């Protein structure tokens, strides 16, 4: 029977108070998270092998399961060598969010500092033995947060891996967020205090809009129309588990998100991984500019054009990621 450390254990923690950058303070703030692995301690009792995973859009702490190419038993980031923490982000269901708090439209708009401080306060309170994070792995939306960590608290971690992500909500990301919000706001039910099942129609439209940006053109062109119909329906089914208010506030965040003028503050070792032929985060505009702006950073380009999930292709560059980690 496998030991408990090999399984992702889901728990919840409550902040007595959490303050947004705007000055708004909330009490009894919930943090949803998962842990797995083995904490290792120095002579002073500090955990020295903590690895933080930051999940993708509309995902939660369990998104780490999609990264079994590099996270897991006998993998690069394994449970014997690392204590792995995956936090469901501020704004996402089960952590403090429009849906979980039941504030819905009255939830405060959040900024990058809020997303990072939410995680940092959690680590400081729940795991005070972590004085310095070994590394942070951020995927897509989580890549924004990982980058924010390295900018606002550059001494808090040894390395950051920024995967299939960006440093600002521009171009297609901005267009998607703007049009998605127009779909949401067009519904007469959105402003109602009681959630109406008719909002499910809006979720389906949003999921199909998201589908356009989720896969490489090579992958989409490899599908028949029948296969596209099937995958569109699957996308729609998954969307019904989301909350439209949570999506609205993510879109609001994306339309203001921009770390362009702060990249020079990054001091930790940084590995930027772009995904070739990615329709949402384009290496030329989203990954390479970070690599060029941050002194000493490294860049890898992953070919995942024939996969519907870029994480499934990480095995192709596992050795290069390992070399980066082991060089620190």
Please outline the helices and strands.
Layout (H helix, E strand, L loop, with lengths): L8 E11 L5 E13 L12 E5 L28 E5 L10 H4 L10 H15 L6 E7 L1 H12 L4 E7 L7 H15 L13 H16 L2 H5 L3 H15 L4 H11 L14 E8 L6 H11 L4 E6 L14 H9 L2
Parallel strand pairs: 3-4, 3-5, 5-6, 6-7, 7-8
Antiparallel strand pairs: 1-2, 2-4
Helix pairs in contact: 2-3, 4-5, 4-8, 5-7
Residue-averaged pLDDT: 92
Distance between the termini: 34 Å
As a percent range, the share of helical residues equals: 25-40%
Weakly predicted, low-confidence segments: none
How many strands? 8
Based on CA atoms alone, the radius of gyration comes out at 19 Å
Structural features, described:
The protein has 328 residues and is of the alpha/beta class. 34% of the residues lie in helices and 19% in strands. The protein contains 10 helices and 8 strands. The chain has helices spanning 98-101, 112-126, 141-152, 171-185, 199-214, 217-221, 225-239, 244-254, 283-293, 318-326, and strands spanning 9-19, 25-37, 50-54, 83-87, 133-139, 157-163, 269-276, 298-303. It has an 8-stranded mixed β-sheet with strand order 1-2-4-3-5-6-7-8, with helices on both faces. Strand 7 (269-276), helix 9 (283-293) and strand 8 form a beta-alpha-beta unit. Helix 4 (171-185) runs antiparallel to helix 5 (199-214) and helix 5 (199-214) crosses helix 7. The chain is globular, with a radius of gyration of 19 Å. It starts with 8 loop residues before the first strand and ends with a helix.
């Amino acid at each position: 029977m496998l030991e408990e450390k090999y399984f992702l254990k889901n728990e919840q923690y409550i902040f007595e108070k959490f303050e947004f950058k705007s000055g708004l303070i909330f009490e009894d703030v919930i943090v949803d998270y998962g842990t797995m692995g083995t904490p290792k301690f120095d002579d002073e009792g500090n955990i020295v092998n903590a690895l933080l995973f930051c999940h993708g859009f509309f995902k939660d702490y369990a998104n780490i399961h999609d990264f079994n190419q590099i996270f897991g038993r006998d993998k690069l980031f394994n449970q014997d060598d690392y204590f792995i923490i995956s936090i469901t982000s501020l704004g996402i269901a089960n952590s403090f969010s429009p849906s979980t708090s039941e504030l819905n439209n009255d939830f405060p708009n959040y900024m990058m500092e809020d997303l990072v401080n939410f995680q940092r306060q959690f680590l400081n309170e729940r795991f005070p033995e972590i004085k310095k994070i070994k590394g942070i792995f951020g995927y897509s939306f989580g890549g924004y947060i990982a980058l924010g960590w390295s900018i606002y608290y550059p001494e808090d971690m040894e390395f950051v891996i920024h995967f299939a992500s960006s440093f600002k909500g521009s171009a297609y990301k901005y267009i998607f967020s703007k049009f998605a919000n127009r779909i949401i706001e067009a519904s007469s039910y959105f402003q109602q205090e009681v959630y109406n099942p008719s909002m499910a129609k809006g979720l389906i439209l949003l999921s199909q809009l998201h589908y356009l940006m989720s896969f490489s053109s090579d992958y989409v062109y490899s599908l028949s129309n029948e296969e596209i119909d099937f995958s569109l329906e699957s996308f729609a089914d998954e969307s019904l588990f989301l909350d439209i208010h949570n999506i609205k506030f993510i879109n609001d965040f994306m339309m203001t998100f921009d770390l362009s003028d702060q990249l020079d503050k990054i001091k930790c070792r940084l590995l930027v991984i772009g995904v070739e032929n990615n329709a949402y985060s384009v290496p030329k505009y989203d990954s390479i500019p970070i690599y060029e702006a941050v002194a000493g950073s490294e860049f890898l380009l992953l070919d995942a054009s024939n996969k519907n999930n870029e994480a499934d292709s990480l095995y192709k560059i596992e050795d290069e990621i390992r070399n980066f980690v082991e060089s620190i």
